[in-house]
Amino acid sequence: MEAGTLRRTPLFDAHREAGAKLVDFAGWEMPVQYEGIREEHLAVRESCGVFDVSHMGEIETEGPGAADLLQHLLSNDVSKIEVGGAQYSCLCQEDGGVLDDLFTYRLAEDRYLTVTNASNHERDLEWFQAHAQDHDAEVRDRLADYAMLAVQGPRAREIVGGLADGELPDRFHTVELELDGAAALVCGTGYTGEDGVEVLLASDAAPGLWKALLEAGATPAGLGARDTLRLEVSYCLYGNDLTTERTPIEANLGWCVKEDTGFVGSEACRRVRDEGPEELLAPFVITGAGIPRQGNPILAGGEPAGEVTSGTMSPSLEVGIGMGYMRSDVAEPGTEIEIDVRGKSRAAEVRKAPLYSKDG
Amino acid sequence: MAEASYPEDLKYHPEHDWARIDGDQATFGITWFAQDALGEVVFYEPPEVGTEVRKDSSYAEVESVKAVSDVYAPLSGEVTEVNEALSDSPEKINSDPYDEGWMVKVKLADPSEADDLMDAAAYRKLLEESD
């Protein structure tokens, strides 16, 4: 895509002002870092960081059949979401392949908002609309209406709370509040392994809130830190760790797959779960030197055993970490493996998720 | 270092590597531009002493959190000394790319190869043109 055609979020000018390094991410011109990935990462672990994630899409589903439509499309049990609740799930093809991984918020009795990955938004929207015809529900594209900020870290609630006109929502809940005078949907969710909130608000109100958050002590953090943070706590990234070639069962997301609801792809998921997947997504750490990267072969006992889907240097653990699909017998925590990093064999060990936790 | 700098006493290779030449010996490293483009260096493994390096070929890699980048030899020769300190403190490549961030010392195979390299003014011009 040519530089001139990249989409920009309402915070583009603020990013440039803050000295961001901007890159093409899923067709959007996004900040990958400001001062440096390591510093921003540690700011989120130790204090508070704010991410512009306005490139993420939103799909609103409303009507008497909204719950049924979502139950038909999403892998989790949508009937369990109360008004003001939030739930993670996968969107699957008939063959169980993952189209996207999503958070859905229940805003009212028959109104839901689903947050999509930027790279999948158009495809998700078409998928929702194609299936809506059989249900009494209206599906609306809300991407252009919302900016989204993720405020994450041990001080995030204190900083956001100081700008709010009411109590912040608990984890996996959502509340409508005013933040610094702007109407906002505040959600107790995130992608960093830290406490914090994600805030959806009108695009034109985003620069004001961004500025207020920085003044209150939040550090601007880019997509680079977002990636290292999520990988330390073994959260999947669509396009790396999740694709249409893999079912959520193989991705170790079986906990959010409720086959009994009969969602699109449920039969395929049930089959993989019953038979046991041949390969599983598992996190690992490098036990010596080296940094694993996407595409590196995984070996066990000298034999090919899988492939790395995400890898980086962990700023908190200060070792190379990653995850990848590997033979199910190899995916057991404690298994010693090797990662072939551009021809050099690096010793690694499969670990239990998450790789990083506050308690060490 | 925060500000771009290209010392006058160095010779420059278009892949953003420098050489400090002293007779038939030279020290190699990467330029301010290279370290800035890469971001914080978090991993560097020096080659072994005795390794033959060839002009325009990669002899090592530097890695930031997000990216891997080849380090090219500006001149040919044999590695006589490596900067072991960078294994523990690769961030010196960012903070001091021309001094503490040096990578290898090499006994040159053919010092006349240096005629192909740029001086600081020519390298600055190359950076401006590719901007």
Task: Describe the fold and architecture.
The complex is a heterodimer of chains A (360) and B (131). Chain A has 360 residues and is an alpha+beta fold. Chain A has two domains: 1-277, Probable tRNA modification gtpase trme, domain 1 (Gyrase A, domain 2), CATH 3.30.1360; 278-360, Elongation Factor Tu (Ef-tu), domain 3, CATH 2.40.30. Chain A is built from eight helices and 19 strands. In chain A, the strands form four sheets. Chain A has a six-stranded mixed β-sheet. A six-stranded antiparallel β-barrel of chain A has the order 14-17-16-15-18-19. Chain A has a five-stranded antiparallel β-sheet with strand order 5-6-7-4-8, with helices on one face. The termini of chain A are far apart. With 131 residues, chain B is an alpha+beta fold. Chain B has one domain: RNA polymerase II/Efflux pump adaptor protein, barrel-sandwich hybrid domain (OB fold (Dihydrolipoamide Acetyltransferase, E2P)), CATH 2.40.50. Helix content of chain B is 20%, strand content 34%. Chain B is built from four helices and nine strands; from the N terminus they run E-E-E-H-E-E-E-E-E-H-H-E-H. Chain B has a six-stranded antiparallel β-sheet with strand order 1-2-3-9-8-5. The longest helix of chain B has 11 residues, at 120-130. The two termini of chain B are 20 Å apart. The chains are: A alpha+beta (360), B alpha+beta (131). At the A-B interface, helix 7 of A face strand 6 of B.
List the helices and strands and how they pair.
The complex is a heterodimer of chains A (360) and B (131).
Chain A: H1 12-17, E1 21-25, E2 28-33, H2 37-46, E3 49-52, E4 57-62, H3 66-73, E5 86-92, E6 98-108, E7 111-116, H4 121-132, E8 138-141, E9 146-152, H5 156-161, E10 174-179, E11 182-187, E12 196-202, H6 206-215, E13 219-220, H7 223-232, H8 266-275, E14 279-286, E15 297-300, E16 303-313, E17 320-327, E18 336-341, E19 344-350
Helix pairs in contact in A: 2-7
Chain B: E1 11-13, E2 17-22, E3 25-30, H1 32-38, E4 41-44, E5 52-53, E6 58-64, E7 68-72, E8 77-82, H2 85-88, H3 92-95, E9 104-108, H4 120-130
Antiparallel strand pairs in B: 1-2, 2-3, 3-9, 4-6, 5-8, 6-7, 8-9
